[in-house]
Amino acid sequence: MKINQTILKEFTLVGFSVYPQVQTFLFVVFFGLYLLTLTGNLAIMGLTWVDRSLHTPMYLFLSALSFSETCYTLTIIPRMLTDLLAKNRSISVIGCSLQMCFFLALGGTNCVILTVMGYDRFLAICNPLRYPLLMTSMVCGQLVASAWAVGFFISVIETALIFRGSFCSPNLVKHFFCHMRAVVRLSCLHSDLTEFTVTLISVSGLMGTFLLIVLTYVFILSTVLRIPSAEGKQKAFSTCASHLTVVIVHFGFASIVYLKPEASGGDDTLIAVPYTVITPFLSPLIFSLRNKDMKGAFRKVLGKTILLNK
Question: Which UniProt keywords apply (predicted)?
Fold first, then answer.
């Protein structure tokens, strides 16, 4: 039990204040990446909405992922950008718990949606004849709703475990947002046990969804290898390339954050940047640049816009 027990009403986010000489530069870089991330995700959602040829399960899931990632970045980046220019970086305990809850929930939702997208590709390639019957619009909606429900269910449990007790001084959260590890270390009671528990829950969720995706791709690969023509194999692989790339980036950066040993050292603030800023930026970029249908839909919308302006 920690001796210096004080009922804290607010925390101070240390963030990038330890690098005062580069804060303005970081603001410009992060702000630019955030605008591009928003533009990419909104473009995917908009194109999926207006182009009827994209009203398929694959693009409905992609649109759901874009919406989830937009909400995910909204929970962190605007506040981070404000703190890069502000002197007062305080956040109330309630505000901190809400930010943590939504961050964990939306991060979990992204993992589940990526898993669902892998399952969709598995059905499309391994069971193409029954695919239209199995993956209906109603099923798509139910799967997306389940992803949100699972994400928020786990998040509420983790947040409740961390904020169930009081916090001890100093009130300095050594991060640019209310990251669970940084906050739980300020807990007055059993912080080590709580940190281990919430980390175990997060790692289990992360590894569980990743292993499910790996399993789907094992089945996909075995099916594709049995396709006789090279053209057929290439077409099958091309439908999975974007998803597989995003999965590697997403889970790769996430594993650095959650699987990093405590004794390994390193600045947690810098380590979290790829997962919270770079991954959401790369995701819409990969899905749009490597997707012929999405690029075709963009050209059609652009062509119609040019014609209307003439």
Answer: Cell membrane, G-protein coupled receptor, Membrane, Olfaction, Receptor, Sensory transduction, Transducer, Transmembrane, Transmembrane helix
